[in-house]
Amino acid sequence: VAAQNCRKRKLNAILNLEEDVCNLQTQKESLKKEHSQHSRSISRMKQKLNNLYRDIFSRLRDDEGRPVNPCQYVIHCSSEGSVFIIPKHSVKSEQKQDNEKE
């Protein structure tokens, strides 16, 4: 009887583990789909941001009416909602200062 009970517990444990594996596989597939959807969403947002960036720079002009070169400037948005066009070299020096502070 003890051996029979032991076998029964062992079979129940195996069945529970098989059920857990099945549930985890289902969860894994669900997470893969969710990850894929998020990746696509991020790609779309990056594309929209790129388009917006190009559109903004296509409309910008310097003091002499020449187009602003997007290779030399970056768009900076402050936490208050202000938007600035900053030369890239000053952004790099600010990043170096921030890294040194850390």
From TrEMBL:
Chain segments annotated as transmembrane: none
Sections of the chain in a coiled coil: none
Pfam families on file: bZIP_1
GO molecular-function term, one example from the UniProt record: DNA-binding transcription factor activity, RNA polymerase II-specific
Domain spans labelled BZIP: 2-49
Any one of the GO CC terms: nucleus
Organism superkingdom: Eukaryota
Record SUPFAM superfamilies: Leucine zipper domain (SSF57959)
PANTHER family xref list: NUCLEAR FACTOR ERYTHROID 2-RELATED FACTOR (PTHR24411), NUCLEAR FACTOR ERYTHROID 2-RELATED FACTOR 3 (PTHR24411:SF8)
Protein name per UniProt: NF2L3 factor
